[in-house]
Amino acid sequence: MDIQVQPTILFFDSGVGGFSVYREVKKLLPDYQYLYCFDNEYFPYSEKSEEEIIERTLKICQHLDQIYPLDLIVIACNTASTVALPSLRKYFSIPIVGTVPAIKPAAEKTITKHIGLLATKGTVKRKYLSDLVDKYAADCCVEKIGSTKLVELTERKLHGYPIDLDEIKSELVAWEKMEDLDCVVLGCTHFPLIKSELQQCLPQVTHFIDSGFAIAKRVEFLLRDVKVRSKNQIINQVFCIKPLLEGDGLRKLIYSLGFEMLNLLNI
Ligand code: DGL
């Protein structure tokens, strides 16, 4: 009897942030085949040029698609999604799902009409973002913080090193006294992974909103009648571009998330 091969989904991010999206998709679609690639050679993407981000993202996704025929790619990185989606969609004929800051849900949820967007330095300054705000949150006052430091702190935490709450707090001082700030959009996929720390620093905020669940629903919808490209089953695995250090705590986390192997990708 033939085994029914499940769709293969690739998640791409500069670092560990994409795991916050992956875990939502995996929860909804536990039997699919999962590949996760993080570009730790160019991390962080926050302040890199648009050209560099587009080139890296395209090159890595193309490379993996040649080894494993993919059925869908999730760009689990807001910073890359704001610039690289058109090029990816031009090259690939499979669905490319991007990560868009959840401005619309936040504008629907806020009572005070005062919301915050926490993202990378790159994301907060892009036109893509101001268009989203104009379209969905024109009646709200939208505060923005672009931080590379918070991305680095999240990365440190997931690699198993302690992080200091005061360092997180110092990135958020501008919002400390804003008593009516009730919703914060986590516009970088790293930030759901430090949600409890952010909650401690901003106790007035009632909702921290990310895009993970919405992406999972979108993936489910796009793959409902897919004709799977791969003839073979593969194992769920993670790829990085440069080797991890000896004793890096990320290995343990990767296995606990349901991946069976960590590989180096030679690009
Ligand atoms: N996780 C990423 C994002 O959603 C990028 C973080 C970075 O490399 O700066 O924007």
Could you give the topology of this structure?
Elements: E1 8-13, H1 19-28, E2 33-38, H2 50-67, E3 72-75, H3 78-91, E4 96-97, H4 103-109, E5 114-119, H5 121-125, H6 127-136, E6 141-146, H7 149-158, H8 165-171, H9 173-176, E7 183-186, H10 195-201, E8 207-209, H11 212-222, E9 237-240, H12 250-256, E10 261-264
Parallel strand pairs: 1-2, 1-3, 2-9, 3-4, 5-6, 5-7, 7-8, 9-10
The structure holds D-glutamic acid.
Describe this structure in words.
The protein has 267 residues and is α/β, with parallel strands linked by helices. The chain folds into two domains: 8-99 and 213-264, Rossmann fold (3-Layer(aba) Sandwich), CATH 3.40.50; 103-209, Rossmann fold. 41% of the residues lie in helices and 17% in strands. The chain is built from twelve helices and ten strands. It has helices at residues 19-28, 50-67, 78-91, 103-109, 121-125, 127-136, 149-158, 165-171, 173-176, 195-201, 212-222, 250-256, and strands at residues 8-13, 33-38, 72-75, 96-97, 114-119, 141-146, 183-186, 207-209, 237-240, 261-264. A six-stranded parallel beta sheet has the order 4-3-1-2-9-10, with helices on both faces. Strand 7, helix 10 and strand 8 (207-209) form a beta-alpha-beta unit. The radius of gyration is 18 Å and the shape is globular. The model has no long low-confidence stretch (mean pLDDT 97). It binds D-glutamic acid. D-glutamic acid (DGL) is lined by residues 13-15, 17, 43-46, 77-79, 120, 123, 151, 188-190. Residues 13-15, 17, 43-46, 77-79, 120, 123, 151, 188-190 line the site of D-glutamic acid.
